[in-house]
């Protein structure tokens, strides 16, 4: 029986995650050119508009019904050893994403609010999908978020699918909700919304990776489910490719759709 994918590394024992990471170097070089072009077009393409046309946010945090939700706080996105670092690393570093997510975890725990993580895992059966979008093809090709199986943690510790070590004290404290995995980008098919509802949550402070993919998709679905959603714009980041700057694409949609778009500093002050 033939498989629908021709993953070269499946049959090549010499193919390693390090080679996958190295394979993104060309994309990183292209991203550098994109950054330079953007800088020439505008000193800061991410700056807030001088004269915004949309109404300002009136969202107010209620500690009794708010949760911090972090998407994909995993090595493959946030560690220099992750397979996507070549294309997301510059954005992660520019926004201090790793440190800002930790600040949110710390503030949320100190405030005693609900904290949830929505991870992204792929199992061997997922590599047998009959059709895929562009990013799905890429993620499967480079082994992103791969685990041995849904019932096995063999090889999980320290892998690309594992949580960043910096975040483990907050995630593994026995109180943080770790939802079932999402498979594409949004939480439509995991139990995140159920877990939040069971905690009496209807407000979400949203952060994590990556901005125009899982983070934006979580924002959209949670809004559709009736949650009030604030996105923390400097606690996310995205790939920069010749096809476009993922962070800028997401930022525009955050402004258009979220109930609020805040900075980490603003959220920490509110939770304090």
From TrEMBL:
| Keywords of this entry | Hydrolase, Signal
Q: Which domain of life is it from?
A: Bacteria
Q: Does the keyword Hydrolase apply?
A: yes
Q: Which Pfam families match?
A: Isochorismatase (PF00857)
**Record domain Isochorismatase-like: where:** 67-266
Sorted alphabetically, which InterPro entries does this protein's record hold? Isochorismatase-like_dom, Isochorismatase-like_hydrls, Isochorismatase-like_sf, TAT_signal
Cleaved signal peptide residues: 1-41
Coiled-coil intervals: none
Q: Name one GO molecular function term.
A: hydrolase activity
**What CDD domains does the annotation carry?**
cysteine_hydrolases (cd00431)
Q: What is this protein called?
A: Nicotinamidase-related amidase
Species assigned in the record: Roseovarius azorensis
Tell me the lineage of the source organism: Bacteria, Pseudomonadati, Pseudomonadota, Alphaproteobacteria, Rhodobacterales
